[in-house]
Specification:
elongated; mainly alpha; 4 helices
């Protein structure tokens, strides 16, 4: 019973942190000081702001962006699932009480989850390369 409570609390904590931490990371300001109005960059920025003020897009939307975000989100969710599996296998191993059958099951789960994480990281790298270099023409995302 205690193991189930610990496991449930751990899963809730991990899931809540995976939802809260990205929001906190985006809350940090990365705003650059605005250039003065007499420079070329300042004039361009003023014109872009005027375009946005009247409702015109200052920058054309890239049709690949929603696909990129969907792929990144799916891979992130899968990575969290495999991390939870690794933690579950660790709990199972630690609470096996020396039972070799339970330890072997935990090892198999942990190895499978580690291989799954490796596949997720490799697929993220390939996706990053394809969207960044091939489809987006070198545009960073």
């Amino acid at each position: 019973m205690l193991m189930k409570k610990i496991l449930l609390i751990s899963i809730i904590f991990i899931l809540s942190m995976s939802l809260v931490l990205p929001i906190l990371a985006q809350a940090q300001s990365t705003q650059q000081p605005s250039p003065s109005a007499d420079t070329a960059e300042g004039i361009i920025n003023k014109q872009l702001n005027d375009l946005e003020a009247i409702g015109l897009p200052a920058e054309p939307a890239n049709p690949v962006d929603p696909i990129i975000n969907l792929v990144k989100m799916c891979l992130s969710v899968l990575a969290v699932v495999f991390l939870i599996l690794i933690i579950y296998a660790g709990f199972r191993w630690m609470l096996s009480g020396g039972n070799s059958e339970t330890i072997e099951k935990a090892k198999k789960i942990m190895i499978a989850a580690a291989v799954g994480l490796l596949i997720i990281f490799l697929s993220y790298s390939v996706t990053l390369f394809v969207f960044n270099v091939v489809l987006s023409g070198g545009r960073r995302f």
